[in-house]
Each structure stands twice: as C-alpha cells, then as structure tokens.
Amino acid sequence: MELKVIEKNDAAIIEITGKLIGGPFMQEMSEILHKLLDEAKKTVIVDMSGVSMMTSSGMGVLISGYTTMKNGDGILKLANVSDKVAGLLAITNLDKVFEYYPSVDEALASD
Description:
Elements: E1 2-8, E2 11-20, H1 24-38, E3 43-54, H2 56-71, E4 75-79, H3 83-91, E5 99-101, H4 104-109
Parallel strand pairs: 2-3, 3-4, 4-5
Antiparallel strand pairs: 1-2
Helix pairs in contact: 1-2
C-alpha cells in the first residue's frame, strides 16, 4: 500500500495504490489527515483508482478518515471508486455516508 498526497486548488488528494487494508496503514492515514487539518486543508479527496482490493479493515480506514475530517470541520470524499467497492459501500449503507465521484475532477467540482 502506497500513499501520495497532491494538493490541487484548495484540496488535498490522497492517491492510494495497492491493497487497502488496515494495520499500520490506518496510523499513516490518520497522521496525514491530522497534518492536512493542521495546514487548514478542509477538503480531502481519496483517489481510489489504484486500489486493487479492499478488506473490511480497509473500510475501517476510510471510516476513520471520514470521522477525523468531520471532527476537524473538514470533508473526506472518495473518487474513482470501483464497482466492487461501490457495491461494498451500498451493502454496508456507507453510500449514505460517503460522497463518492467517478473522477477526482468531479469531486473537486462538487464543492
């Protein structure tokens, strides 16, 4: 699992590559989000185009990230969500919680 943070407009885009699983990745994601909030970045878009699979622990990473941003008066959006991940979001009713878009550009334009 690799993370890359890109700033575009007033948002931060976190590109995830590989398998979205829990473990140490949860701590790394939390540290990145807290740093972005400290830098007054209130909109974070998670680009999931490079995610090859996601476990339930990976879903926990996203939920934790959403909560971190919400508690910091920010927002976390998902972009480039695969059909498989969208299905998981629907089954768990998290599609009612997360905003997700077909592309990063559409997520940026949604503000």
